[in-house]
Amino acid sequence: MTPQKQQVVALLKSIETGDPAPVAAINPDKYIQHNLSAADGLAGFGALMQMLPQGSAKVDTARVFQDGNYVFAHTDYNFFGPKIGFDIFRFEDGRIVEHWDNLQEKPAKPNPSGHTMTDGALEVTDLAKTEDNKRLVRAFVDDILVNGRMDKLTGYYDGDHYIQHNPQIGDGLSGLGAALQAMAKAGLTMKYDRIHKVLGEGNFVLAVSEGQFAGKHVSFYDLFRVQDGKIAEHWDTIEAIPPRPDWKNANGKF
């Protein structure tokens, strides 16, 4: 594990333990916060931690990746209630200077195929294919989720071999199709409007997008595992973006 990954894992764990030492990874003079519930800077991070009831937090980071100056983690939290989250940290001159995240309430039970939001593959492989895999995921999100080119869908998958960790959707393209039909029947619309970031390490790629879900302005974080040029596994979180007057900082979600 790289030193930056170690620093991120330790920093996230410090939310649970209260250990102040890992916070030294953050640049105290420049910490740009995109969690809209926290004020900007190191003081904002500290204030949020002080609001947590003593001993209530639990942090279990399932996977952590690095793409250049960015480290991104996938974590099972109890943080003002059980949540699953993705965190992205940007490093500059060896210190953390910027943070984005996306949190979703953790469901009480697994999805229709028995998967949780964090279980599944862990091993990073195919490091030489990182850029190819990032291009594939960007094209998939753009084609299918942003532009709805459903005629291209099957080209991104190896038949029905597709492991799904979204809490509402079963495995395979068949599971995805059934879920989309159920959503349409219930009048729930999902629209991706814009891709903001695509980060990757080997066979794992995280796409950060903005759009609408069930009538709300949301942030979509989608983590994909790519195998042999096809999408093989998917994890995600969806978080509603609060109205502008409720933001604790002016940096925006993205």
UniProtKB/TrEMBL annotation:
InterPro entries: Cyclase_SnoaL-like, NTF2-like_dom_sf, SnoaL-like. It comes from the Bacteria. Residues 10-99, 137-234 form the SnoaL-like domain. One of its GO terms (biological process) is polyketide metabolic process. This is Nuclear transport factor 2 family protein. Pfam families: SnoaL_2. It comes from Variovorax terrae.
